Amino acid sequence: MSIKEILEWQWDGYAKFHRSRANLLLHIIAVPFFIVGVILLVLSIFNLSLPLIAISVSLMVGSIVVQGIGHSKESLPPEPFTGPTNAILRIILEQLYTFPKFVICGNWLKAYKSTLYPE
After folding, report:
1. Please, what is the Cα angle at 76 between 116 and 82, to 5 degrees?
2. Is 18 exposed, middle or buried (0-12, 13-18, 19+ CB in 10 A)?
3. Chain-centroid distance, C-alpha 77
4. 73 near 9, Cβ under 8 Å?
5. How high is the mean pLDDT of the chain?
6. What phi and psi, each to the nearest 5 degrees, are found at residue 48?
7. Distance (Å, rounded) from C-alpha 117 to C-alpha 119?
8. Above 80 in pLDDT, residue 118?
9. Which among 70, 59, 64, 66 is positioned nearest to 87, based on CA atoms?
10. Among the four 25, 29, 80, 82, which has the fewest Cβ within 10 Å?
11. Cβ-based neighbours of 15, under 8 Å, separated by 6 or more
12. pLDDT digits over 89-107, tens only?
């Protein structure tokens, strides 16, 4: 799949994999840590700072672990990765594009409210 196809595929199914209140809350907290980790990683590479590289990688890995815990609370588990490249692309695209879009478009709040007031 191309990056464009992955983004479309992720977006089309995103809401159905993010319905649990616990998962939504963990994502809204953890994804910003991943984004900060990416920014720190870029800065640390330019500054050749090994401690900053370690901190940035820890932030990103910790964020993914927390989100994995959140996904375990979902009734519908995420689609399995088809390989290492697919895993890396899907994770990075979700963190830097799909989840922020989910929040900005109001879909996170809509999903969260539906956990408070189920139909």
Report:
1. 140
2. buried
3. 14
4. no
5. 93
6. 50, 45
7. 6
8. no
9. 64
10. 80
11. 102, 107, 111
12. 999 999 999 999 999 999 9
